[in-house]
Amino acid sequence: MKKKFFPSVNSRLERWLAVTAILGFLVAVIAVDYLTEEQPLHSIVLPLFYTLPLLLALLISRLMAIVVAGVGALSAALIPVLKGRFLPYAAADNAMLLISLVSVLALYLIVGAFVRTAALRKEAEERALRLQQIFFGTVSALSNLLDARDPHTARHSHNVAGYALAIAREMDLPRAQREAIYIAGLLHDIGKIGVAEALLKKPGRLLPGEWEEVKRHPVLSYRILRDIPELQEVAIITLYHHEWWDGRGYPYGLKGEQIPLGARILCVADSFDAMISERVYKPALAPEAAIAELKRCAGSQFDPAVVEAFLRCLEKGAPMQRPEAFRFEMAFGLS
Fold this sequence. Notes:
Blueprint: H1 12-35, H2 41-60, H3 62-86, H4 91-147, H5 156-170, H6 175-187, H7 197-200, H8 208-214, H9 217-225, H10 232-240, H11 261-275, H12 287-297, H13 304-315
Helix pairs in contact: 1-2, 1-3, 2-3, 2-4, 3-4, 5-6, 5-11, 5-13, 6-10, 6-11, 9-10, 10-11, 11-12
């Protein structure tokens, strides 16, 4: 593919404008430098005509800005030499011209550094956005893989993540915390990879030993996620999301505010979606019945403040079943 001379210029008109900027720059510098001999107009107008073409070039192309700046620096060096050779110049005029040209050159350096810094910052932001998109896409794909193990839990992780994010936003939590809670919702059951599938799909009541095996999955989730630096907080949330407000949860029996807030939020979101979803071992509850259960268990299983925040979300129109609007793309709208 042939490389463009003006990589950031998209049309023939813009290319002509860029070329015109350079030609106009040269004409303006020479004309103004010869015609404005009287002070202080000379020292005011000359830098102005140096600056305007540069600003025009900046609007068109970064490459054009560099070219125009280079031509300007060359002109600043050549014009005094030409004048000294062809026209008699007083010492004061030469000093004023030199000061003017040095000032313009300093302006070019400052503007050039600013433009380069801004370009680097933009490139870094674009690179970070691409990495974020890859990261969230990978997390979402892994969540889909977990849900695909059982048709009865399809979309469960996405639903839980959506509810948890809605609660976190309702509670006005910081962006980073909301992001961690959302990702924890997607990955909260990743530890079930280490639990026998027969236990997860058993239609009847689990035996005590089998229940102890299933209760290991939060610890397994934590062990899977803890070594990823970006997922340290996510790992903590997944570890404690089955702890109860009154201390009767698992795996460690934490109580009240000993449980991280993100885990308390995830507990409500996970429980609500589990209640309104049909499972192999139970039928689905109507959303109204699930809401009544949340209210009944507020203060025992659930943090009352989190339940209240979730109920406000539902009153504002958050979907009560299969919230398809809550996709991983929402992670880019956490502000």
